[in-house]
Amino acid sequence: MHPEEKKVLVTGGAGFLGSHLCDRLVEAGADVLCVDNFFTGSKGNIEHLLGHKRFELMRHDVTFPLYVEVDQIYNLACPASPVHYQFDPVQTTKTSVHGAINMLGLAKRVKARILQASTSEVYGDPEIHPQTEDYWGRVNPVGIRSCYDEGKRCAETLFFDYWRQHNLEIKVMRIFNTYGPRMHPNDGRVVSNFIVQALKGEPITIYGDGTQTRSFCYVDDLVEGMLRLMASPPDFTGPVNIGNPGEFTMIELAEKILKQVGGRSTLIFRPLPADDPRQRQPNIDLARNKLGWQPTVPLEDGLKNTIAYFRRLLKP
Ligand SMILES: NC(=O)c1ccc[n+]([C@@H]2O[C@H](COP(=O)([O-])OP(=O)(O)OC[C@H]3O[C@@H](n4cnc5c(N)ncnc54)[C@H](O)[C@@H]3O)[C@@H](O)[C@H]2O)c1
User: Fold this and answer.
1) Less Cβ around it within 10 Å: N or C end of the chain?
2) 2 band by pLDDT with thresholds 50, 70 and 90
3) How far apart are the C-alpha atoms of 196 and 45, rounded to whole Å?
4) Distance 63 CA to ligand 1 centre (A)
5) Which residue(s) pair with 215 in the sheet?
6) Does the C-beta of 62 come closer than 6 Å to ligand 1?
7) Which residues are catalytic?
8) Is 187 exposed, middle or buried, given 0-12, 13-18 or 19+ CB atoms closer than 10 A?
9) Where does 231-279 have alpha helices with state H?
């Protein structure tokens, strides 16, 4: 199962996480087919790979079937931030559900191993803390976040039914908040928001009172977890949490960013959006035991690289 022997399909490969995954796969010697409809992804994210002989880009929407020959599929296609997934909620559910059906169908036809980029959002606003994989979640089925949360939950169901019914080799990864270079600058995610506001010298917007906590995983750690999961023995399907258990309040995060960026931004407080979870933190014991994985990049270091990326991006 070494990536260097493989033809690998990455859906959503021009996005934030997908582009870093393509980098690592090409580096490891895989033949990479990156599929994206460029809804939130960009050619800029994969520009540096375009001339590479083992990298190919295809514009395609995963809600339509795809016929290619591959050995492994990483299914990442889906807008990931509320601003984007709420723009066309019906399309978001279609991307998760029809996208999963199409990619699972492809995996079945060509006998490929397939990994689903699921999310901590499947836990909704959780009653237990930190969340373990056997927790079923507390999700509002009819709210404004439901197109994403329920779409991802249904995709997990499909993965497990293809596994039970068709013996497919599946891997389900529940990704917690991840940050790093190539995040979208205007997608409302907290790390990019704070950094962009700080770099522009604008006030930093905190929703609620700023005491709600989040955990932040640096993208390099996340991609390492993804590769390890794909390479894990066939009987390990997940779902498995991949994220950083270190917890920070929104105020702490803002202060860390301000310390690195400098400038004179102040903090301003706005009402909390609907269904915003108060606290989310992964329990990563399963990933530690089964994949020998744990995050290694401290928040300060990851922020340093991310701030450097946004500085370049925002340069006039
Ligand atoms: N970044 C995180 O913190 C995080 C957390 C949990 C889960 N995830 C999951 O990881 C995956 C990647 O997230 P990301 O942060 O890189 O987001 P992103 O928006 O940068 O990447 C998603 C990519 O999918 C593409 N896409 C969207 N709809 C498509 C469609 N119908 N057909 C083909 N391509 C399509 C987009 O153009 C984009 O390139 C998503 O599935 C997301 O749900 C991410």
Assistant:
1) C
2) low
3) 18
4) 14
5) 247
6) yes
7) 148
8) middle
9) 250-261
Nearest atom in ligand 1 to the alpha carbon of residue 94 is: 31
Cα(177) to ligand 1 centroid in Å equals 12
223 Cβ neighbours under 8 A, 6+ residues apart = 17, 20, 21, 24
Q: Identify whether the C-beta of residue 40 lies closer than 8 Å to the C-beta of residue 187.
A: yes
Pocket probe for ligand 1: among 78, 81, 122, the residue whose CB has the most ligand atoms within 8 Å is 78
1: confidence class by pLDDT, cuts 50, 70, 90:
very low
DSSP code, position 131: B
Query: What is the amino acid identity at position 3?
Result: P
- Tokens found for residue 270: 């706005």
Give the separation between CA 274 and CA 255, rounded to whole angstroms. 25
User: Dihedrals φ, ψ of 62, to 5°?
Assistant: -70, -10
Q: pTM score > 0.90 for this model?
A: yes
- Quick one: average pLDDT of 152-171? 98
